[in-house]
Amino acid sequence: MNKPLPPGMAPDTLVDLHETAAEWFTRRQEPGWTSADERALNAWLQADPFHREVFDSMGRTRQLFGQLKQYRAQQQAPAQAALSPAARARPATAAPAQPWRGWWRAVARGPAFASILAGVLVLALGGGWYAWDNTARYSLDVATARGEVRDIDLPDGSHIALNWDSTLKVRYYPRRREVVLDQGEAFFQVSADAARPFTVDSGRSQVKVVGTAFNVRAAPPRLIVKVREGKVEVCPDRAAPDGPVLVLGPASGVSVDPSTAQHVSVPVSADTVGDWRNGQLRFKRSPLGEVAQEVARYLGRPVTLAGPELANLPVSAYFSTSAPDAFMELLPDIAPVRVRRQPDGGWMISRR
């Protein structure tokens, strides 16, 4: 009967949809409802998930309509009592069944009637609007295995590249686009849409953008956000109403401690953001602590620093994501360190 609602549905269209749902709901309660009517109703309900949300909300208003009927009976009682016994005995002339028009005409009978009906409309429209705004029009759950990189095209033209061992959820609502990166790493190229902000939640932190390209890594022990182009807002702790909101532009980044939401800036070269998509990482005076974390991700084993003073040692090098052990063996040639393989297959880095 109705076509699926577009994401940008106007309030007037929402009211029309509630009227249609109300007509279906009322007809279904009347005698003469047939199996053909039921099939037609089911077709309308299945045309869009929001149709069912609105139709189901009609049932929640029945109690308020019951109050309307009770009020009308109370208002009519004094007039009935004033009639003669003969007049009360005469049967009333049946009027055509027009339930919704009847309710609207009844509003004029008194302020309490209007108040109850207003409550009905607020419940129906308010509940329906909330359901519409929180019903996802597009959903995607995806996970990658070790050694797997996946490219994802989204319906708005945005693109996500998902790195190894990553878990991602995408939900597009009428007024917002939400992504949850539970673990792993992803590079985002977001199509601009000021009316529908794009957010990436990871742990207690959130990244918010309108249109840009950036990288998020949710791998212990830090959450790291790096921006290639455009701007993003990073909220280290979205549950803290007065917490800081960091604005990052091109060639900037931040590292967040997931347990405390403490954060520090990290150096970024814009042309290296998301370069893992090509199977190679390029480090440009990157801190050794970050390099060790990157290598450990592809190694699948820990890479440990012998002392905290090594974490800020700058490293410039190329790294193939398919050969982490080879990179570790070459590390002493590009930095003043020693490396030692551990019994568990990991590596220990110490100062030379």
Give structural notes:
With 352 residues, this protein is α+β, with helices and mostly antiparallel strands. It contains nine helices and 18 strands. The chain has helices at residues 11-29, 35-46, 49-59, 62-82, 85-89, 99-106, 111-133, 288-299, 324-334, and strands at residues 138-143, 150-153, 159-162, 167-173, 176-189, 198-202, 205-209, 213-219, 222-229, 232-235, 246-248, 252-256, 263-266, 280-287, 303-305, 314-320, 337-341, 347-351. The strands form three sheets. Strands 1, 2, 3, 4, 5, 6, 7, 8, 9, 10, 11, 12 and 13 form a 13-stranded mixed β-sheet that branches. Strands 15-18-17 form a three-stranded mixed β-sheet, covered by helices on one side. It has a two-stranded antiparallel sheet with strand order 14-16. The radius of gyration is 31 Å and the shape is elongated.
Number of H/I helices: 9
Question: What is the number of beta strands?
Answer: 18
What quaternary form is this?
A: single chain
Alpha-carbon distance between the two ends: 76 Å
Classify the beta-strand content into a percent band.
Answer: 25-35%
Report the helical percentage: 25-40%
Mean pLDDT: 80
Radius of gyration: 31 Å
Shape annotation:
elongated
Category by helix and strand content: alpha+beta
Q: Uncertain regions: pLDDT < 50 for 5+ in a row?
A: 1-6
Largest sheet: 13 strands, mixed
The secondary-structure element order is HHHHHHHEEEEEEEEEEEEEEHEEHEE
